[in-house]
Amino acid sequence: MACLPSSSHHAVQHQSSSIGELRGPTRRAPRLPELCPRNLLEQPSPSLQASESVSGRILWANLHLLFWLSLAPFATAWMGQNHLAPAPVSFYGFILLCAGIAYFILTRSLVAHHREDSQLAMSVGNDRKGRLSIAICTIAIPFAFVKTWAAYLCYVLVAVMWLLPDPRIEKAVHN
Length: 175
Description:
Elements: H1 32-42, H2 46-50, H3 56-70, H4 72-81, H5 86-113, H6 119-124, H7 128-146, H8 148-163, H9 167-174
């Protein structure tokens, strides 16, 4: 896998945020919005590692999650190019919301594939962190049009929530 440079200070691009409006050189978006998608893309899912076997449904659910995560760099770049304007910030929230829903589908598919009393099912539990992430992103999307900073703060909260792995799933992986 090729490593690409993370800074874009060498290339100067001109982007227009609306018809007829041309802005200056692009500015790199803050790095914090990249934390959650980057962590999920670079590390294999602990839920999949704890799984004894997978089915076609689980593979499709995982592909669904990866699709939404692959759109995160585009949304992050759009936020940076438009200096955290409301539309790109809400779009970023939509991407996070869809990724959260896809993760929820993946975990439910894994639990349905295994026994209800399996170690994986018990470690996932009711997935409070996943449900809370979906709720926060749902609230943050309309906030982007009212108070952009509030929406951004919600996204930071979601990223911080997912920085630490779930100890229940980590315990299931190592056992």
